[in-house]
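Re: duplicated header lines in exported structure tokens

Our pipeline writes sequence and tokens for each protein into one text file. With two proteins the header for the second block appears twice in some exports. Here is an export where it did not happen, for reference. First protein block:
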Amino acid sequence: MTVLRVYERYLGRLIYGVFVFILFAVLALFIFFDMLSELESVSGKYTTLVAFIHVMLEAPTRIYEVLPIAVLISAIYVLSQLASQSEFTILRVAGLNTRQALFSLFKLAVPLVLVTFVFGEFIGPRAEEFAQKVKLEAIGATVSSGFRSGVWVKDRDKEPEGEVTRFVNVAGLRPDQSITGVTIYEFDPSYRLSVIRVAKEGRYQGSQSWQLSDVSETRFIELPRAAGNGADALVPHFRAQKVSFPTQTMRSELTPQILAVLLVSPERMSTLDLFRYIRHLRDNKQDTQRYEIAFWKKVVYPLTLFVMVALALPFAYLHARAGAVGIKVFGGIMLGLSFHLANTLFSHVGLLHTWPPIVSALVPGTLYLLIALGALRWVDRH
């Protein structure tokens, strides 16, 4: 393990101290605006207190989202202060070159990268899911997709007569992860519709098993074809048989974790949950690009903190006469916001133009890293 030098400890103490202050200041601002937005939904059991709890449970996700911007602002502020007081100039005279300064900032960013990873993988997704459940329980609603018909999921299962393909429509997902308004269209190995199953609700029993209640089944049974009928369209080849069951067990690869995408957007899911859902979509030959982009963004996002400190370093080479510290900090805020917007923009552009997901995730960070390295080269020469 590399031992931090004296100036690195001093620099780290300053940056971490300012970082905590800026993070809480930015977080408080987001919480204030989120609370104003939630007040519009306050009614009945969804009281102001419940709305506040909902907003506070979303705070870990907000921390994850603003961490790179907070790191950039804090690093720019500290380095600008050191430049205005000629402390950074003294370090340069003592032998600190640009490469060493950049490497030192990278070392100081490592703990913050780990913090970002923990919030993005463990704290944020779980808190976000719980926040949605708290709100749904208060207003007594279920979650469904943006479509009026609910969410559609493709599923497969192996039965003695062969592989069965299902198209499952779920009208809603309750906070306890039970599903309501279930309609299942089941196709045989020849892709002929064999069963239409409608259930009032379903509960997951574990081991890829669902218990459906109040089930109504319509089965399509093929009739033996009489000789000489040929291809007469008026002669029925199937007959429908309708049966009902109070409960029925259905084996399926679908799990509440897969359906939890209704509660949490892909950008706010953990990498593991995204990986599982992508695998499910691939197994059912469905489009995975949106979720793959979200997956690679989650992988790359903590590493953007290295880009942020690289962007901040050129400000240390600008002396006080080149502008006040406040102006530099304002420039850092604009730079951080532009990075955030570019990160979102390239996700949509990559999805629209079907770029490789990893390219959509890497382009913003790579672009801003090149800008930082170009700025460092310029200030180093001048």
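Second protein block, exported in the same file:
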Amino acid sequence: MAEAPERWTQATVYDDMWVDPDDDPRNSDGVSPDGELPTLQQYLGDYRLTLLMKCAELDAEQLARRSVPPSTMSLLGLVRHLAEVERDWRTWVLPGSETKLYGPRDADFDGAVADPAVVETAFADLEREQLATDALLLSHTDLGERVGPQGIAIRELWVHRIEEYARHCGHADLLRERVDGRVGQ
């Protein structure tokens, strides 16, 4: 395995932060949003932005780099995986409505190769799938409404999405640090 990069950060105020708090686009002034749905949307939005921040300023090779063999996990694989699961969550509401984006199990990670076209497609897929899932869930105004054959609550789908992004942002922290030493909060 290649030598580990030296740890570094762009933050100047706190040496263990990704960026200084005043420069962090996830920080907002004022009070938290009123209401359950706006709160869920803010948390999901912040995790989505965190993932993009972890991928910023990296080339195709760095995004596709698998840092802990034999794992196939990479930053690019995470982007593709999250696009795939955004699509999959829609099938929980409308069974059979979607097909796999990248193919059978683990194709999202296996196909995350160091090709600029693959990178461009992955980020476009993620944005498109996020918008489609957001639109579907927002069409159900009652967060307690139960949908699909399993009777899952719309609220649970919002919370599950937050959990999925939070989990993978933790992976992204470690993957990014292994790529170039950048640490993050």
